[in-house]
Amino acid sequence: MVVKLRHRIAVKQARYILLISLLMGLISTSWQTYFDLQQEQHNLQAEVERTIDLHKESAASAVYHLDAKQAEIVTHALLNNPIIYRAGLIDDFGDILSISTREPAEKNTLATIGEYFFRINSHIQTPLNIANSKGGSAQLLIYLDSTFIADNFTRRAATSLGIGLIHDIILACLFLLFVYRYLSKPILNISSWVNQLRRSDTAPPIPYQEEDEIGDLVSNFDKLWHERKEMTDKLNITINELSKSENFSRELMENAVDAMFLCLTDTSIVQANRQAATTLCIKQKQLAGQTFFSFSKNYTGKELKALFASIDDTQPTTFEDIQINSQGEEFPIEARGIKLRLQEQDYILILARDISIRKEAEKQIYELAFFDTLTGLANRRLFIDRLNSSLKLHLDSHKFGAVLYLDLDRFKTINDSLGHSVGDAILCKVANLLISLLPEKCTCARFGGDEFVILIPEAGDISETCAETAATIAKQILDALTTPFDIETHQLYCNTSIGIATFPEKNNSALDILRHADTALYRVKALGRNDFQFFDPEMQSSAQERLEIEKGLHQALDNNEFELWFQPQLCSDDTIFAAEALIRWKHPQKGIILPGSFINIAEDSGQIVEIGNWVLKQALEQLASWKQRGLPKTFKKLAINISPVQFMQVNFVEDFLKLLNEVKLPGQMIELEITENMLLNNFEIASNKMKILKRRGISFAIDDFGTGYSSLKYLRHLPLDVLKIDRSFVTGLRSSSDQAAIVEVIIATADRLDLMIIAEGVETLNERSALMELGCHCFQGYLFSKPLPAEVFFSKLTASSAVNLISTEQEL
């Protein structure tokens, strides 16, 4: 770029040197003129005083003698001095003796200027001493020509000023010539050389090679130029490579799957990629200038600025946020920020990834880990964690809590008969009911199946208050469950049994407390269900025994510890016409265990199906064996108890008929005993299965009739053959008692529906007689025989048949 002439250093030097020289010369001359003025004023005063002294005696003499001629000579002599243009003499009586005057000098510009600066007293009045004067004092008057004096001084000052300026200008020119020769000219040459360096790729000759400061400067600049030239060549190569890399990086940024924001430290967005615009539902150009926190839900502007300030350029900073797009939709992001330094400016580069899918997966994992998928309640893991936290809290607060262990009564029957969809619906309704009844701080969990557990963390300051609170909540739950649930087309009742354990007590752990509540729960079931009980040590012993039985059942089948015993069923003439197969557990340590001690446990643990299948198979094979050995003609059938769970298995009918075909037995020799409750809750399914089996000649008996939810509906619509009167109606039966009225109704109903009646648990002759009076002629009980092992029963059966045959022959 060409430098204008007025901007050149040489011109500036000439201008400033000349101005400074003139200014310094002017100041110096002015100072000298000031001193000359002071000196001139002093000289003028001295000259006036000499002139007065010179004529003072003559003037006094003229006044004394009143000599006018002498007075005129004196005044006229005073005018000979050019600085005086008027002189006068006044006597001691105030009369003028003589006045002499001449024309003062003409005024001009210099004189006017001089008068302004050279101020003098132009009117001087000097008193004269007159001897023996009786009047006033005589006066000598002198009038100075100020114009002459000022003009004379001004001309001298102007001459001095002019000479000084000429001197300064000549000196400045000489100085300029020296500066130009040894400074400006070399600089101009160097400037021209530098311009050539800028326009050319090759270096021209060095314009100055003297061994002084300028020479060092030129030499160093030449070295620097060559070094820069080398670096520039390398830089150009690098820039070309970077240009390619920048294009690649730009494309990479624009096509990145993550949103990228280049921000200032005040969170304002400088640049964003295409994915950022897509994520925020805004045009890419509109993002520039907006603030990052304007799209944030979790951070305010102040908080985000503080976060940006903490980000450094060595280690990326990761943080999470909820972003809000232009349509108001929220989504979680994981952002990584790092500081960049570009063109002396700090930036924050943010890479933001939408983690909605990950958050949803984490939520699902959390829910799967800590919540029941069906009911949404806490699961076992979360419940135990909260119970442990409560135990730690109670160590400090000394407050008591409680755990309620719930198990739905008859749920398995409903679930197996009506299907899992109905069972799941019941579980969800029960879960919602429990949540609505419990205080806010309580935790309700589902442990699986139909088991629910409730944690009451703060139930009271003392154990008694805690127990009252737990009992109150248990009663509320029991009362609420008396209302039936309307599910699909069914109206179902679902009661519950509740075991309660309070804490803290001794050093019990969370698992100990749960075990105590579970023990109390089984105590409730043993006492008839649909109630609640608190844990005590006796329950623990009972639970331990139950646990041992449950464990033993797993091994009983494998070790062949089960046996089938048979109890005869007799007519009024003591003929054995049938038998009921009853299972016995021959425990290696405890001996024979009756089914009442383990069947309920097998049902609760789910082992009843496998055990029931074993009973069915063994009973059929035993009957087939007796048939081959020869059964009396009076023996008609074998009764086999079927568990509701077993009967409601999908493949029960198919497997049973297949087994019946294998042992080659007619269906008429088999009677299946089922319970009332199974029919009540699974009427349609049970009815269809019974009709299929009925076509094969199999008969059905209702066991323990009268103890369940007896309904005439299934008696009329189901293919039933036998009603078995429960032993509770038989024990102590007298023909005139209230029990007799109930039994009479049962017998009349059976007769009306053409059903056979068998009375269970007959132990005395009085009971047998009362039953016969009421119309029952078939019996089963200890009066006739206890359950017997297979061989003993078969021997008794054949012997009884022989006795009956002899009696018949004798009668004939």
Automatic annotation (TrEMBL):
Record field: transmembrane: 161-183
GO biological process, one term: signal transduction
Sequence ranges assigned to domain GGDEF in this UniProt record: 399-537
GO cellular component, one term: membrane
Keywords: Membrane, Transmembrane, Transmembrane helix
CDD domains per record: EAL, GGDEF
Ranges for domain EAL: 546-801
Entry keyword annotation includes Transmembrane helix: yes
Recorded superkingdom: Bacteria
Coiled coil: none
PANTHER family linked: BIOFILM ARCHITECTURE MAINTENANCE PROTEIN MBAA (PTHR44757:SF2), DIGUANYLATE CYCLASE DGCP (PTHR44757)
Designated name of the protein: EAL domain-containing protein
